[in-house]
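Q: what sequence does this backbone want?
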């Protein structure tokens, strides 16, 4: 299982302003028409993306609309991403959705921003892989 810090760093490395998967209202699109996925969508299983790929909105709305428990949602994530709280996924989603965090080259914030945003979910001392 990947740690939350690994997932955060992986997400940061994956995106730039042009590769974000958001709609015109800066709301998450789990899967876009051209195949881009949001920070949560890219961590979902094929079954999860097939079921929820057209959904637009945050993770709490997705869970509520589909009447999922946190554990049921976790089952739609790829195995290496399972075991983290829905609260973590919501914060990661917000990081992805906010285009003020990105430019054409990638993520533009610093470690202090990540720690302030993610709190105990982010450990800047964790070795980078």
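A:
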């Amino acid at each position: 299982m990947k740690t939350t810090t690994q997932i955060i760093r992986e997400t940061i490395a994956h995106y730039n302003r042009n590769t974000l998967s958001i709609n015109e209202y800066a709301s998450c699109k789990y899967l876009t028409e051209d195949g881009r996925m949001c920070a949560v969508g890219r961590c979902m299983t094929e079954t999860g993306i097939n079921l929820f790929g057209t959904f637009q909105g945050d993770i709490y709305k997705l869970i509520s609309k589909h009447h999922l428990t946190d554990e049921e949602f976790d089952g739609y994530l790829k195995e290496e991403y399972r075991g983290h709280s829905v609260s973590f996924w919501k914060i990661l989603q917000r990081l992805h959705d906010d285009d003020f965090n990105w430019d054409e080259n990638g993520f533009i914030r610093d470690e202090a921003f990540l720690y302030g945003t993610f709190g105990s979910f982010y450990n800047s001392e964790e070795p980078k892989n």
